[in-house]
## 1
Amino acid sequence: MEQLTAVLERAQQRVAVLDPIDHRGRLEHFMFDVLDPAETSKKYALIPLAPDNGPVVMPDPVTLSPLAVRQLCQRLGMPVKFKDRLEELKQAKLLSINLNTLMQHNRNSLTMIRTIKGEGFRSARAILGSQYQPLDDAELLTVAAPYLEGADVAFSQFGESSTHITAVWPDTIQDGLARGVHIANSEVGMRAITVEAVAYREHCANILPALGLGGLGDGEQGYNEGNAYYRNKNRALKGSATTSWRFIHRGDTSRLASFVEDAVNDASRQYEGVVARWRQGLTDMVLDPIGAIGDVSNQCNLTAEHVKSVLASWAETRPDFGDCRTGITNAFTHAAQKEEDPEERYSLQSAGTFALGQYRLPN
């Protein structure tokens, strides 16, 4: 466990190191350039051009992260698969011609370019719409801290595409489970801010989201629509009981604080629900555990490597649970701890939620 103040300090230090600066301008005032003449490294840059009237949008060129390149293609209407194919064929110059042509015909469309310190030039880590209101992790944690009093941080990771933090109240431990909340954010537009309850298993530090990507409701629609990692355009303005409390920042810090307060307060209700399901799952026997893991993985869009990891976790933890529904859930949350990417980790945890609530056991 880690103190929340220590995590907040790390977030603030990260801001100081990255030195984020945002620029707003029109894509027609930039040129896309290939930095590698051999066309093998996929290194690109945006070079600011002098507009007809007014100063340049940025003083210097910026290199582009892989995510920024994908977002640039999406904003211009170029299929990302087409970009990938041109790169496979080592046709980066042709990619440059296509993108520059589209950029020069993308008039009167404002864009936000999020930049951070890089090697030599600054680096554009995201290219987003001009209406996007950035909310850095340090600011979010500062707003959330008053509502997490008494909680310790069981997990925190600041990833390139998103940040995930799980805070747990140690004084709520009962039957080996403790109440906590999971907060997720993306500084590069990959997900809305989300807050939901989690059940923290003290014995193995497994984390089970109460709502996850689909919640403990009925049917499969909630999972598929709520998976921000794979379907990042589904960005609700306010939370729902089936896909967690979600919030899109519009620049109003007081509104953000109210959202966090409401979401954390609602976490108590969510937690009671997930614990009830956990206990019920201990008596729900699974005739084909391996088949069930495969079914859940398929419905939750997990990869073959994910399935392999979950099966290994199931074999390791089977003596603790036997062949019950909760044991299947525990296999997913146990496998999640092996993942380095916080989004991949959350996807596996949420698949555990799906297994516990929405997945229907074969008759």
## 2
Amino acid sequence: MDKIKKFGPEWIILENITKGDTNLVKEILNEYNINWGELIEQAMSHKIFPMVAHFFISNDLFEFLPPFINQYFRLIWDVNAKKVKEIKKETILITRELLKENIPFVATKGVVLDNELYENEGYRFLSDADFIVKPQYKKKVMEKLNDLGLKVGTVDWKSNRIKELTREEYLIYLNTPDKLPEFVTEIDDEIIKYVSIGFVTSLTWNKCEYKVDIDDALDNIRMIDIGLNEEKIPALSITYHYIYIILHLYKHAWIEYLSKWNNDVNLAKFGDVYRYFYKYKEILIKELPNLITKHHIEEPIIWTLMHTDQIFECNIVETLGIDKNIISTEYLNSAGDKNGNIRHWKGNMEERLYSKDRKKLFY
């Protein structure tokens, strides 16, 4: 394969695990010597190491793993599954409290996708519990989170302690219309000590030229199984959640400051876009084109889906019947900066994902 010559067998294994393709991975493992250090480094950077561990263990590929490395594959999946469970527990607690107040909100992204796309087996990497709430309920949500004992701050991973926001950081959050300050709750566990909570009030971000009417998005809330104790949580409709997943990826790929530590784009986010489409294909074919037109979000949606098609060699844009000529080749390889200027990068999105020093790609 030309792609193996270009990127190496380790990268192609990771791409195929991300999309859930078992057959090609087995072929590569049988034909190539694998640099396990490279594979693990890229898997961690792209937030798919637990997924890779699950893939090897559940597909009878454990024998391919070197001694001792195989133990870490088992451990990383188990630890991630425990973290996912703790995040779900906190999601349930918050859901109960906000429903009592009749606050219109939804859980989003990983805590929803773990059960809908990833078999509820704890191998989808989750950073936190994410929610969307209408802007006018921002203050009320903060009051309820304080009542639950959550603290405003982030986790300092070096000390494994809560790092409270400075007064300046807190005021910045309060004056940012599209999000709440990040909250953290401490839990009684020796391994997973904290769960982070994130609330936003928009499907895009502050100063973004693209907007999705949040009243429309929250008009048809689903109550879905979270995959824990038969509890249900509110979620966006299937199509609006797909729009949000896409726009969240676009945000990280587009905004310059999110490229710090290569936190701009990763295989995990593109894998969500790929898997979600093929699970809900019939619904999305019927509803997505109309909603894209309604909210005038053709450019970011097509941008993201065209890159997904290129990475995974699929045809989502064509299947949806969307005119990809709406966006130019120049726009496809562009991103923004904090001053609203346009930047460009060399190569395609796959090469950007593969790169370990993405700043060198931009010009």
## 3
Amino acid sequence: MGIKKFKLLSFLLLLSVSVLGQNGNEDSTKANVLKEYNIALVLPFNSEGVRGKLSEVILDYYVGFKLGVKHASIDGFRGNLYVFDHLKDSASFDQILHHSDLAKMDIIVGPVYEKALKKMSHYCDSTRQILVSPLRYFKNEYNSNPVINFFPSDEIQVQSVIDKITEKHPNHTFYVAGDISNESQKLARIITRALRLKDVTLGKHALILNNGALSREVQQNDSAIIISSSTNQGMQIAMERALKNKDISFGIAHFNVHKKTKEFKLFEKILFPDLYHYNRTDSSSKQFFRKFKIDQLGSPSKYASIGYDQSTYLAYSLMTYGVDFTNLLPGGIYQGIRNRVLLKPDPNGNISNYGMFFYKHYSDYNELVE
């Protein structure tokens, strides 16, 4: 990260950064390209205190976000990026809420703390400004002004998995597998409710992990899909055994067990859902990697690429559809450097990302399964 970033940040906290496209008047059919958008980043940089892990993450996110805005400016995006250093105490945040520049913003990204997000959502509900929760899921109380959540809740991740799997395999029989823990049983109920809303066949019984094996067998004639609600490492082994002799059947692991364990096991039948995918051989990824390295004299972290993906998505959405973009966006998927973005209304009255990847793990690489 280094000194260079923090010198830059100290300057940015005093001045807004103008990132202006040069070709905004070339296409008369894109009237909103001519508009300048004010974007605020309200994030805990902690520029005046001890720099911890969170401030490092936030600074990486900021650098990626800024590069995304610059990238969009090549195609005509006109925007002003404002930075507000939000400390955790309420007094400093109240100063931001009363800052004269905040009222000028078309879109506000952050904060990240729960209490501050509640205050900001109340503020944006009264001003009708767009609020983005960049690094956590936030359940907004003010449904009249939905919050954009790039990080989905557990329930939305489950729904995203089920939407994709049931659409691709409508004729399979679906089983829900869990363990006896409260967390697994709660998630199993969520999965089951979501499956019942789909036009698919549900297995006649739930599958419970017990002594390393599933409590029931999958019916022999079924083309089966087992969806796990358990983070227990034994669940993948148990699902693999249950599906061993079923050629077109497979299992879906819990979305929090996508990382490889130290003692790697090859699960030929198990798909691992995840929010991230980083393909270093992709041309866009290579371009971002080069830009970041030139700008920061180092390699980008996960959060730098997340910031880049989010700002690119927001900038092009604003440039194409204006501030009402959440109501006008088609149901297409934006494939970013690391994130897959599919924004849709969620059950809590907000706008959330339903984008999800599926992997198969091998000893030396991951295979992306579409």
